[in-house]
């Protein structure tokens, strides 16, 4: 029996296959880049997440003859990254990574309407220029074409799950 763990991280995806005794059978890593530009923008290509996952899982499991002996799968991912997709699940832009700070103005605008305590009490989070609320507001104000075409805003793990069911 085997278990497979996958971490879709900020700079790469790591996969590890372990046997029922807890010993590592195989591990793999595939890096991908951050796209950085002016105005605190940090993005990634969402498809890089999926391709890295597929690549590392294949590398870890290529010598397992009976794939049904893999009894458990666990996936973790970077949090706070956001990718707008159309009705077919295709990305409409690069993913906005959790460390992107382009939304400082949108954060300030919202804090002028309500104090930080208001947002914390409503969401359990302090209002952050790196959070999804701000990322979505920034898209609405600065990329109205992408915002209006967006069917859903997906997190990293949501995007991975969508790709798995395609």
Question: Which helices and strands, and how do they pair?
Answer:
Layout: E1 2-8, E2 12-19, E3 24-31, E4 35-37, E5 41-44, H1 46-61, E6 70-77, E7 83-85, E8 95-96, H2 104-113, H3 116-123, H4 132-142, H5 144-149, E9 152-154, H6 156-164
Parallel strand pairs: 1-6
Antiparallel strand pairs: 1-2, 2-3, 4-5, 5-8, 7-9
Features:
four-stranded mixed β-sheet, 166 residues, Nucleotidyltransferase, domain 5, single chain, 28% strand, alpha+beta, three-stranded antiparallel β-sheet, 6 helices
Relative strand content: 25-35%
Largest sheet: 4 strands, mixed
Numbering strands along the chain, what is their spatial order in the largest sheet? 3-2-1-6
Shape: elongated
Q: Which second-level CATH architecture applies?
A: 2-Layer Sandwich
Order of helices and strands: EEEEEHEEEHHHHEH
- CATH topology type: Nucleotidyltransferase, domain 5
Low-confidence regions: none
Q: What class do helices, strands and sheet pairing give?
A: alpha+beta
Number of domains: 1
Query: What share of the residues lie within helices?
Result: 25-40%
Q: Give the CATH H-level superfamily.
A: ATPase, nucleotide binding domain
Question: pLDDT average, as an integer?
Answer: 96
Backbone CA Rg:
19 Å
What does this structure look like?
- The chain has 166 residues and is α+β, with helices and mostly antiparallel strands.
- It has a single domain (2-164), classed as Nucleotidyltransferase, domain 5, CATH 3.30.420.
- It has helices at residues 46-61, 104-113, 116-123, 132-142, 144-149, 156-164, and strands at residues 2-8, 12-19, 24-31, 35-37, 41-44, 70-77, 83-85, 95-96, 152-154.
- The strands form 3 sheets. The protein has a 4-stranded mixed beta sheet with strand order 3-2-1-6, covered by helices on one side. The protein has a 3-stranded antiparallel beta sheet with strand order 4-5-8, with no helix packed on it.
- It is elongated, with a radius of gyration of 19 Å.
- The relative contact order is 0.18.
